[in-house]
Specification:
Blueprint (H helix, E strand, L loop, with lengths): L2 E2 L10 E3 L4 E4 L1 E3 L3 E3 L2 E4 L5 E4 L3 E3 L4 E8 L2 E2 L1 E4 L3 E3 L2 E5 L7 E8 L3 E3 L3 E4 L5 E8 L2 E8 L4 E2 L4 E14 L4 H10 L2 H9 L3 E14 L3 E11 L5 E11 L2
Parallel strand pairs: 2-5, 3-6, 4-7, 5-8, 6-9, 7-11, 8-12, 9-13, 11-14, 12-15, 13-16
Antiparallel strand pairs: 1-3, 9-10, 14-18, 17-18, 19-20, 20-21, 21-22, 22-23
Helix pairs in contact: 1-2
């Protein structure tokens, strides 16, 4: 069932939602939909199908209900999608971490929402990711801090990076620059020491009485596949 306050959803023409208008419910409309007001697909929850294109402008809102990870509104578009404005999530309870494919389109999706809001406040982060013809709401932790108790919080971390060493030492670099020869410089640059890969994990902790600490383990895979390991333990008291 389509309930709209501006235009008509019963014919094959385009429908334009004005700033104070709204269209909601589940069902099918044959034409294109331009939203300057509010579009709310589904019927606790459900799917709204648009035969051609969907465009939401800067002052428009797309309201999508998410009842559970398996039960949420879907906007299904037979053509292209152009996004702007606000994505308003109607959630009765805080959402679990996960991905929700809210928009499915046969054509490409361009643009993105300016903002994402929730009916119930979230201690999480939200991003809307567009990939080909699918628009997905991703719910991630607001923080990776893990509160063990009122007195202790754990902070896990992980890192990895790569380094390429172009020259054997700084003296070679200085000599090459002084030569002023582009060919010689290129030859020296190509004579590299190789690549190094660094990775590590760490677990930090903090207390509500000023005691902080960190335990980290780092590994380097360097030239000639040599391995270097480092274990570091640190602690400090902050007043």
């Amino acid at each position: 069932m389509l309930n709209n306050t501006t235009g008509s959803a019963t014919g094959s023409g385009d429908v334009r939602i004005l700033a104070d208008g709204s269209l909601g419910g589940g069902g099918f409309m044959a034409g294109s939909l331009v939203n300057n007001g509010t579009v709310a697909p589904g019927n606790s929850p459900g799917t709204l199908r648009i035969g051609r294109n969907f465009q939401q402008n800067a002052n428009g809102s797309l309201v999508m209900e998410i009842a559970s990870p398996e039960n949420f509104d879907v906007l299904n578009v037979g053509g292209k999608v152009r996004l702007d404005g606000r994505l308003a999530i109607d959630n009765d309870s805080p959402l679990e971490l996960g991905q929700f494919k809210l928009i499915q389109a046969k054509g490409p999706i361009s643009g993105n929402f300016d903002s994402i809001t929730f009916t119930r406040s979230q201690d999480t982060r939200a991003r809307f990711i567009v990939s080909d013809g699918t628009g997905t709401l991703v719910i991630a932790p607001g923080s990776y801090l893990h509160k063990v108790s009122e007195q202790l919080t754990l902070i896990p971390e992980a890192s990895v990076f790569w380094q390429h060493e172009f020259l054997r030492d700084s003296e070679t670099l200085q000599a090459t620059l002084n030569q002023g020869s582009g060919g010689d410089f290129a030859h020296q640059v190509s004579d590299s020491d190789g690549d190094s890969v660094f990775g590590g994990v760490a677990l930090g902790f903090q207390t509500n009485f000023g005691f902080y600490g960190n335990i980290s383990y780092d590994i380097e895979i360097g030239r000639e596949s040599e391995l270097n390991h480092t274990l570091t333990v640190s602690a400090d008291w902050r007043f």
